């Protein structure tokens, strides 16, 4: 789920927080935002396709990462971590149960769209579905450093992320019925 991706993005910012603490706030914010960003295609376009680039995402992210290492500054670090976290998000969407109305009941063939091959990548099922208890566990572990290492804004975002993750996990299996009521 989106909070797990935001937490995974924060993990990428950890070396910055440890090695260049003065850049920690901008690094943490960019990583958190980049980790969450691809899921905006739930609102616009096709989810797990329009803003998810599991292969092409690395094309700008890797040089941006190299630039941030060569010339670390607020802009290079922010751009690199945003792009790296977004690319990691797209790849890791292949690790859950895939897209389905009720992914805990149905076999899905579609995890995330692979633009280069013009096809959907199949789900691996390492996390059974988004919002599964193990997904919450991942969110919780990954967001904990965000409470301490990146300044006040990221602390608030991480705290908010933990609350959202807990609520989403608690109501996840009821969401398809709620959505149905909205449509009817
Ligand atoms: Zn996603």
Unreliable stretches covering 5 or more consecutive residues: none
H-E order: HHHHEEHHH
- Beta-strand residue fraction: under 5%
Ligands, ions, cofactors: zinc ion
Question: What is the structural class?
Answer: mainly alpha
How many discrete structural domains?
A: 1
Task: Report how far apart the termini are.
Answer: 26 Å
Helix content: 55-70%
- What Rg do the Cα atoms give? 17 Å
Number of helices: 7
The strand order across the widest sheet is 1-2
> What is the number of strand segments?
2
Overall 3D geometry? globular
Residue-averaged pLDDT: 95
- Main beta sheet, described? 2 strands, antiparallel
Protein name: Metal-dependent hydrolase
GO molecular function: hydrolase activity
Organism: Halobium salinum
Transmembrane segments: 51-70, 147-171
Could you describe the 3D structure shown?
With 184 residues, the chain is mainly α. Helices cover 57% and strands 3% of the residues. It has one domain. The protein is built from seven helices and two strands; from the N terminus they run ααααββααα. The protein has a two-stranded antiparallel ribbon. A hairpin with a 4-residue loop joins β1 and β2. The chain is globular and about 50 Å long. The structure holds zinc ion (ZN). Zinc ion (ZN) is lined by residues 38-39, 48, 52, 89, 93. Zinc ion binds next to loops.
Short description:
This protein has 184 residues and is mainly α. The chain has helices spanning 2-19, 24-36, 58-70, 74-92, 133-143, 151-171, 175-183, and strands at residues 112-114, 119-121.
Which secondary structure elements does this structure contain, and how are they paired or packed?
Blueprint: H1 2-19, H2 24-36, H3 58-70, H4 74-92, E1 112-114, E2 119-121, H5 133-143, H6 151-171, H7 175-183
Antiparallel strand pairs: 1-2
The structure holds zinc ion.
């Amino acid at each position: 789920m989106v909070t797990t991706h935001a937490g995974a993005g924060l993990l990428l910012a950890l070396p910055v927080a440890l090695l260049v603490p003065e850049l920690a706030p901008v690094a943490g914010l960019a990583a958190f935002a980049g980790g969450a960003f691809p899921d905006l295609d739930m609102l616009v376009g096709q989810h797990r396709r329009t803003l998810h680039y599991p292969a092409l995402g690395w094309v700008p992210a890797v040089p941006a990462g190299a630039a941030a290492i060569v010339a670390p500054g607020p802009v290079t670090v922010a751009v690199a971590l945003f792009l790296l976290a977004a690319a990691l998000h797209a790849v890791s969407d292949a690790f859950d149960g895939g897209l389905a109305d009720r992914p805990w009941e149905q076999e899905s063939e579609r995890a995330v769209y692979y633009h280069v091959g013009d096809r959907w990548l199949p789900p691996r099922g390492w996390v059974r579905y988004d919002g599964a208890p193990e997904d919450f566990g991942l969110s919780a572990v990954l967001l904990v450093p965000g409470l301490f290492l990146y300044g006040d804004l990221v602390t608030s975002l991480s705290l908010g992320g933990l609350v959202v993750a807990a609520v989403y996990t608690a109501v996840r299996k009821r969401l398809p019925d709620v959505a149905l009521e909205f449509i009817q």
